[in-house]
Queue: 3 jobs
Job 1
Amino acid sequence: MPNNNNHLDLPALESWLWDAACSIRGPVDAAKYRDYILPLLFYKRLSDVYADEVTRVAGEIGDAELAQQLIEQDRSLTRVFIPDAYTWTELRRSPVDLGERLTTAVREIAKENPDLSGVIDIVDYNATTAGQRRRVLHTDGRRHPHGLHHRPPAGRVAL
């Protein structure tokens, strides 16, 4: 894969990244995966930008709590507004009901930022397949403590 200078050339990098994406994606069609993952990446980026802008405003006025209050009152202080409960950092605190919480987060962000409606809120991350949610059970029938998984590890059965 590396060339003589111990650097990764562009075709090798593209191949490696494609293989990595296919490994993560599993049996999901690439086009559907793209529709699923791009809004997720965009949400992460929006959350990072918002956090940076809150930090900037806090630096300008010298008080983080006051900056948050001002931003909530005057949304023009930042390019995007994300309610505290729906920041990426907050979402990551727990894997419980992650699909439902993620769908709610992107929908609430779209409500607060109408320009993002139809961009970030197009995927239901808690969607079902054929009317059934995939649940992961241990082979002895116990429910997996973290709920949904794309592929069950050895010794588990996906339902």
Job 2
Amino acid sequence: MVNRRVDDSQGHLHFVTFSCDRRRKFLEPDRAKRVVIGQLGSRLSRHDGHCLGFVLMPDHVHAPVWFPATCPLSPFMNKWKDQSSAMLKRLFAQEFPKYWATVDPSDPIWQARYYGFTIWTRHKVGEKLTYLHENPVRAGLVARGVDWPWSAAQLVSVGGIPGPVDIARGEMCRRCPLVVADAADHDIAGPRSDKKQH
């Protein structure tokens, strides 16, 4: 796993994206999606972290995550990908042996990198949630984002205001500064950098 350090000294919200190696559809089976969701909840619980939404597509994952502690994003992502990779390889070997026989055992499940986009405003939170929850619609998988069972589209809106989903405990929480901010376009404190989104 590539150690890609992302500075989180200001406790910002991060919109993370990572993809299957060679864009293979390793997440096509529902059981594979459950593995990734389960590991997300497990890792969030260990880091006291929270997820404001997520979508699992057949070949990639989007999730905005936030942590009250500083600088946990890189180890969080590395562990999430490492643990889910090992579990997915076991799943495919046991449940889908014919398909798995066509895959080189040394091939990784995930691409080496992940992409983290720092979210600075509450307006951007809503924009990113709309973007990720419309992924299945753009891909032609469902007619409406809320119809895709492998996203938090039905959970993240409370009174029209995005609220963080606590996947580990299955409830809503309101600790992220961008969610509790009074103004919809209020910039959170901290130096702003121009980080290119991937």
Job 3
Amino acid sequence: MNRWIKTVSLCWIMAGTMVLHAEPLNCSGTVTDTEGVPLEGVKLRIMPVGHQDVTSDAQGHFTLSWDPSQWGPEDTTFCLVARHEERELGQVMPIEEDQTEANLQLQPGLSITGQIVDSDGQPIAQGQARVMLRVSNWGSGLSDATAQADDQGRFTIKALPVDQQYNITALAEGYGQAEKNTQTATSNHPMDLGTFTLPLADQSISGKVVDLDDKPVANARIYAYGDGQPDKHDIKTDAEGNFVIDQICSGRIRLHVNFFEPGQAQMYGSIESEDGATDVIITVSPQGTHQGFAPRSPKSLLGQSLPDLKDLDESLTEVNIEGHPLLLCFWDMQQRPARHSLIQLAQQTELLQQQGVKVIAIQTTSVEADALNAWLQKQQISFKSAMMTGDVDKTKFAWGIKALPWMVLTNQDHQVVAEGFPVRKLRENLAKVENNVEEP
């Protein structure tokens, strides 16, 4: 999502409190239709600072109260936005801070259409399309312009003032978001933006919020967002500072934390992580603590049943490992340390056979099969060999691989008793197979 657009949301979420003018400014006027007839039922708002609409009366009169100090930059262009959806009329008028009167004549508005679909191209019923007006150095949402999609995922947003630029965001429960920006529309001819494809939000992220003394921070508010991610506003840490955010999409996500309690110092912090991370630590402080990217760490398989070997290579379903301890060596023939470790492991073939251990060498990157087999034969390595297929990164994460080479050892029941150890510690880990003792 565009960073400058997100700034509007973050200012409100992170601020905790707002500073207002001692005396709010008032602006009154009359709104008419294209024929100059006073128009009742027009919704008006001053943007980007207005957060409540007023509606014109039967004589087209309105009065707005607003506070320009809610927006920081001194060179901000403020606008009076007026829309009448039933008549499909709209208008945007620049307004000065000291302006007390504004009369508007509405013009035929722009209609924007589109369709919301999932990653398979199937319509998402009951999704939403939201509008952000883009002016000068800001972007702010037109809350009254939100459109509901029908059963075919189609939506229509009406009565948008022409000669403006807009950002359209499509979203739906259980999915992420998709955005498109419009060019300045100089006429009210309908604008079709095509399809908005939403990613599935079936992942999660969790962790803890702490202060500079590493003490947990309870009741801290967390705002989560990212490109294509659903916005999450209502997340709070528990008494131990822990948090869980469900229904996010695959990929990176940014977490902003704000802590404000009466009588206590306000604290802030932020970090970027990714779906599947379970141990994200966010540090907050009065000055604000901004951390970098914290990648997810794969879970240990220790004490767990070995995942299905066919997830590595379909050919491994033919390997008879029943009743045998199993040693998997994940390696990459393109890396010298990995090649060296596999050669060292081959020198322990007799010991492994004595223990009844089946060994499988798993090549983790795609290489020419002939080249792989030729190298194995040259080194006189007789272990069963396989090559990862499909989404290699996803598979490595599921198998808890943190580096290469990486060895995983199981007992006869294929419970993992050791992982990530070097060849020089093979003998002591084989003792765990016999004693069925897990690593601490």
